[in-house]
């Protein structure tokens, strides 16, 4: 729990939004378009896949400072389609939601 709290504290606001959305939908694979629309307040001019990937790459500080692995899994898009999908395991979601509530 302590490492999750450190990880959470190091996240930028948009990264927190994405992680919280994933954690509130544990075990479900969520396409990057849904993450851009629901977690990042809608599309902007950029490609949703790049936008989400950029936000999630910003989690490296939390990852290195907490000593905790990244809390999500991702799957590349099948050939011929666009955008990755992401998910958080239910057990990991519970830890991060509890860490968030401890803020």
Give me the secondary-structure topology.
Blueprint (H helix, E strand, L loop, with lengths): L1 H8 L3 H11 L6 E2 H8 L8 H10 L2 H7 L6 E3 L9 E3 L2 H12 L2
Antiparallel strand pairs: 1-3, 2-3
Helix pairs in contact: 1-5, 1-6, 2-3, 3-4
- Subunit organisation of the chains: single chain
- The overall pLDDT, averaged over residues, is 85
Helix tally equals 6
Structural class: mainly alpha
In spatial order, strands of the major sheet run 1-3-2
Stated plainly, the CATH topology is called Arc Repressor Mutant, subunit A
What's the shape? globular
> What share of residues are in beta strands?
5-15%
CATH class placement: Mainly Alpha
Tally of strands: 3
InterPro entries: DUF6416
Protein name: DUF6416 domain-containing protein
Organism: Streptomyces cynarae
Pfam family, one: DUF6416
Structure, explained:
- With 103 residues, the chain is mainly α.
- The chain has a single domain, classed as Orthogonal Bundle (Arc Repressor Mutant, subunit A), CATH 1.10.10.
- The chain has six helices and three strands.
- The protein has helices at residues 2-9, 13-23, 32-39, 48-57, 60-66, 90-101, and strands at residues 30-31, 73-75, 85-87.
- A three-stranded antiparallel beta sheet has the order 1-3-2.
- Helix 3 (32-39) crosses helix 4.
- The protein is globular and about 40 Å long.
- The chain starts with a helix and ends with a helix.
- The model has no long low-confidence stretch (mean pLDDT 85).
């Amino acid at each position: 729990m302590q490492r999750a709290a450190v990880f959470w504290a190091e996240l930028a606001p948009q990264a927190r939004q994405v992680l919280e959305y994933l954690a509130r939908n544990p075990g479900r694979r969520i396409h990057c378009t849904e993450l851009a629309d629901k977690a990042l307040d809608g599309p902007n001019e950029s490609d949703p896949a790049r936008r989400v990937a950029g936000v999630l790459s910003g989690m490296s500080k939390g990852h290195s400072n907490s000593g905790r692995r990244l809390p999500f899994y991702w799957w590349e898009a099948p050939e011929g389609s666009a955008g990755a999908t992401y998910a958080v395991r239910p057990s990991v979601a519970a830890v991060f939601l509890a860490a968030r509530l401890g803020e």
